[in-house]
Amino acid sequence: MKIQLINPNTCQGMTDKIAVSAQTICLPDTEIIARSPAHGPESIECAVDETIAAAAMLDVIAQGEAEGVNAHIVACFGDPAIDAARELAKAPVIGIAGAAFQLASLVSHKFGVVTTMSRTLPAAHHLLHRYGYHHLCTGVRATDIAVLDLEHIQADVYKQLVDECRAAIEQDGAEAIVLGCAGMSDLANEISSELQVPVIDGVVAAVKLAESLHALNLTTSKSGQYATPFGKAFHGRYQHWSR
Amino acid sequence: MKIQLINPNTCQGMTDKIAVSAQTICLPDTEIIARSPAHGPESIECAVDETIAAAAMLDVIAQGEAEGVNAHIVACFGDPAIDAARELAKAPVIGIAGAAFQLASLVSHKFGVVTTMSRTLPAAHHLLHRYGYHHLCTGVRATDIAVLDLEHIQADVYKQLVDECRAAIEQDGAEAIVLGCAGMSDLANEISSELQVPVIDGVVAAVKLAESLHALNLTTSKSGQYATPFGKAFHGRYQHWSR
Amino acid sequence: MKIQLINPNTCQGMTDKIAVSAQTICLPDTEIIARSPAHGPESIECAVDETIAAAAMLDVIAQGEAEGVNAHIVACFGDPAIDAARELAKAPVIGIAGAAFQLASLVSHKFGVVTTMSRTLPAAHHLLHRYGYHHLCTGVRATDIAVLDLEHIQADVYKQLVDECRAAIEQDGAEAIVLGCAGMSDLANEISSELQVPVIDGVVAAVKLAESLHALNLTTSKSGQYATPFGKAFHGRYQHWSR
Amino acid sequence: MKIQLINPNTCQGMTDKIAVSAQTICLPDTEIIARSPAHGPESIECAVDETIAAAAMLDVIAQGEAEGVNAHIVACFGDPAIDAARELAKAPVIGIAGAAFQLASLVSHKFGVVTTMSRTLPAAHHLLHRYGYHHLCTGVRATDIAVLDLEHIQADVYKQLVDECRAAIEQDGAEAIVLGCAGMSDLANEISSELQVPVIDGVVAAVKLAESLHALNLTTSKSGQYATPFGKAFHGRYQHWSR
Amino acid sequence: MKIQLINPNTCQGMTDKIAVSAQTICLPDTEIIARSPAHGPESIECAVDETIAAAAMLDVIAQGEAEGVNAHIVACFGDPAIDAARELAKAPVIGIAGAAFQLASLVSHKFGVVTTMSRTLPAAHHLLHRYGYHHLCTGVRATDIAVLDLEHIQADVYKQLVDECRAAIEQDGAEAIVLGCAGMSDLANEISSELQVPVIDGVVAAVKLAESLHALNLTTSKSGQYATPFGKAFHGRYQHWSR
Amino acid sequence: MKIQLINPNTCQGMTDKIAVSAQTICLPDTEIIARSPAHGPESIECAVDETIAAAAMLDVIAQGEAEGVNAHIVACFGDPAIDAARELAKAPVIGIAGAAFQLASLVSHKFGVVTTMSRTLPAAHHLLHRYGYHHLCTGVRATDIAVLDLEHIQADVYKQLVDECRAAIEQDGAEAIVLGCAGMSDLANEISSELQVPVIDGVVAAVKLAESLHALNLTTSKSGQYATPFGKAFHGRYQHWSR
């Protein structure tokens, strides 16, 4: 199968990194097509960033769909534009936050989330509510590590991240940790070894869910909310969306 | 004061219509600057439309802010990009759905919402939850009238709308009606006369709330979630957002 | 328009003070009629006080309605007897807690409430739930300042109040402050200057909402829950209510 | 023990009727003191009625407390003034709605409520939320029988009531019925025989709970919310409350 | 009446102790039949214990039902197997956690729960949600006292328990205390004297509720969820359940 | 990897059927070990059945764990004893209801559940709440097909099932269907072809989730709620659990 793995940030470093994470754990016959949009912010750390990245990302969804990919993964912890993407796609669209919450809930009674900037906290809480996992989460902790600082992680940044995970376990009662940024994808195993609880990275979680849906022949329902939009005119820089 | 009244749809007809609604009820010294984005869909009727319109609308927010407007109104019932707009603006940003819910709750125990297309129902429910008004709403009813058909309303479309409002009152127990599209702005008084309950249009509700905040010198808090984003690079067609 | 501004406490000092607050910000053609009931407690600080003040206040609602006022404001943060008042009135009835929550939610992501006595905390939480704003509130903090001590505020009391507001911002993450007593009405601007976040006083918020509803010709729905009560006998000191 | 059984309506007929219900099922050494306030509405059927009855009822609570009763029962399904009553009383204060919900939840998975006038429905829903039983209730059905028509029940009114109970069972899935008015107290056994499900009358439920608390030596906590109010001046017809 | 008081733990010491508690406060004509299952864990302190004890306890329910008891009390704070027991029994089945929450809510605005092992906290929270009392609870505090250590309580264990109750009152704002284990049944009065708030033991609470239901002739509804199961084959050690 | 697929019912026919379903879609190197307990009811259709099956099933968990299986699947839609199983197992334990909800939420905005007997509805609703999917479910519909009638499905039973699925889509707005019984496992593809929406069977969903967790090296957290129980005495037929 072909999985389009979309980094909605435009920073190529993170795209390369998550491609490696995905390729390491995917099935032999899974092809990972990792992309980021041509347009938009280098990193997504506030609502302005996310609003713009969401619109830009839809071009990538349309491209993958045209190419016949079997699943799309939105590899930003805010799961941006997931509803719009599902309207455009017949293939399933999986956000990494939703994917991580699902697997975390299978191996723990309550999990904690450790993320990047404080101002992404409301977005994380919104997703916990949207997906219905708020009562299973012991809290969301911000490290105030900038997304781009995750490209080449220094020892002090790593320590900061581990310390926050440990606080989630010891102070909040987390029994597992969800990493709240695609840029942390390569650290899950190391932190899990250190803290002795399951540590879930949404990127690889989403890859396995995509493969699962594919094996079961499950694709986005086109009945109701995610039906293909009917045609209309778009203007200016979105003219190519006119249908 | 200057109020920037934004129609996030690119259809000029609706922009003109809501400008008239706003000017009819604003204070003598309020200036209404009605605009729609240069880019994006003619009408917003699904998540794809809304995702693209949201990004396009931020340019208008930035323009108004640069001009020193005293309030921004987002005149689409989905209240798109309201968080991003508040990050960009010092002036208050008011969505018409939120505004309508507020005034409706002051004159009724429970209100009903009557809107356009069925597929916007989840968005309406999401806003009722987000703003905390779900328990005060008797239900959201779709008419399946297309947004652009509201520009010049025909008798049969009007009847369809009134019938749905009457059903909300008689079957659902609504004590007041919130109109779920800016394009219905000119119909509130007529429907209220016919059905003898308060009928709330979010456009004029938002204008009065904007004037209220201005009179009380209340502007968007820049402490916390709505702080101004810090600078970063944007690429491609969003390069002008590089800060 | 005529706004009846009701202080449900019988202390004239607070009635005079809120009249000044209202007159300072109302429109030129708004007449403020400030009143307190002839009967009841000097201040409302527990459920017994509120239960008695609620019954006494209905006489004032009836009087204002007979005089043809265009709006009633209930200027006690517990919004006492608001449902009964709406049954009696054709004019809108606005509680100051509800009014403050509405405007606070327009200029912040989450707001804090700072109020008087600890034992009014459950009442404040009840109102946050009733109006649907609980999820937008970072918490309610009591100062244990007595209501009557707000008539002529001393420096130490003022400091106590500001300290609690600061704690709401710094410890709880409040981005705006709602003042939880009509008696604090004259302090909003000063505290806002000092703390650099929006500070909302419910009295002036309610005045602007009353003017907004009036401008839009919106009055209490008489269909359903707030329909005029049908006649029946009342006995003893409530005989004048026999209808 | 002495139980003060308060009918907050001023109609003596209902007071006499519930006294009989209570005396029929109380323990041999329980004395039932049935009273209604000297002031207030003949029947409670809207928020105005309830607001006035609530204030009037507090005099009865104070009288009973002075006489040393061991429990107070508020025998109106809206459980009016229950918080204020608990502030005044050392003896427990039990509302009949709360009492009925408790026993109903012990003998059924989900129960239905059948009450009097439609406009009391919001009050019933409010109590279900307040006490936490909303998820255990299949719905509240109004019969639109006036409270005073329950004093001497005619055959057609009885049939109307039974029909609504049957609808609650057959259409809503109720497994037990809570009767939503003290005036229905004498009908519980008959309806239960006819419909073959438990039918709970709050008056007798409250009597048994009052006896239970007394046997266990449990009285209203005076720590926190229900502490005795501190003294202050009351004016006009409430001067006797000055403490 | 006959009450079957079931200790789902197999430790006879606790069975004897709660029998004494029950006999001390029951009516003269109430007979207490205290039993524990022949099978299962000595104490219930995790989900494995509870799952096994639940199945074992059903034999005791069936035995009591065959003997014609008038009520069953499940005297373990997790209220195990309460739904299955109600399917089997015509007599009411009362769990001690549910019983304690009901009485606590009649004498306080908010109560705290003090229980044994930390790992029973999720079970306690589950019950608060199931019965609808979560919003009335200030928190659940674990003492990490083992259940069997409650059989003969030493001074230091008692002090630990009282300290936790005091913390619930002073730090969490509890106005009453619910004891979270049947093994604490004999301590309620002593702790209440020391801390001067109501302290509720679920065992005696359940006895009084059982007597209340009996006096009102209320038994488990056999319409719907708690209808008697229809017959089927059971195998192995559960063959005696074949119906 | 080895997956222990447990049918908590003792009917061998269903065990064989789900083994086939699982083997059809598992990876080449996955070994399915399908088992049912030696003890307990032939089918699980009420709380008594489930309570007994839960205890019996723990023996199978312990056996699989001793054999070193890499995952356990509990193939009964009530997800019985899932917490106890997780305490016993280091390998992940997956219930089929939870698994089905997860995958359904990835391919639809809202899904419906179609199950067997009416009296299992409360159990299904409980699981939707427990896992946090209630707001994503359009409703649970019972077919009143007995579990054992699913072993060899007749044409009329199949039609009844499809009709109920169609009603969920057309009347309730379901965009995907979750089949509410392991015994329906072999019908998902056929119903999906007929109704043109995704139809999710929990058995195969759980197999793919088990393989996903195994690929990511995620096992049950032993920190907190699911820690291994400490030793204690068990009596009678549960003596083998003494630790």
UniProtKB/TrEMBL annotation, chains A, B, C, D, E, F:
<dbReference type="Pfam" id="PF01177">
    <property type="entry name" value="Asp_Glu_race"/>
</dbReference>
<dbReference type="InterPro" id="IPR052186">
    <property type="entry name" value="Hydantoin_racemase-like"/>
</dbReference>
<dbReference type="InterPro" id="IPR015942">
    <property type="entry name" value="Asp/Glu/hydantoin_racemase"/>
</dbReference>
<comment type="similarity">
    <text>Belongs to the HyuE racemase family.</text>
</comment>
<dbReference type="InterPro" id="IPR001920">
    <property type="entry name" value="Asp/Glu_race"/>
</dbReference>
<protein>
    <recommendedName>
        <fullName>Hydantoin racemase</fullName>
        <ecNumber>5.1.99.5</ecNumber>
    </recommendedName>
</protein>
<dbReference type="GO" id="GO:0036348">
    <property type="term" value="F:hydantoin racemase activity"/>
</dbReference>
<dbReference type="GO" id="GO:0047661">
    <property type="term" value="F:amino-acid racemase activity"/>
</dbReference>
<dbReference type="InterPro" id="IPR053714">
    <property type="entry name" value="Iso_Racemase_Enz_sf"/>
</dbReference>
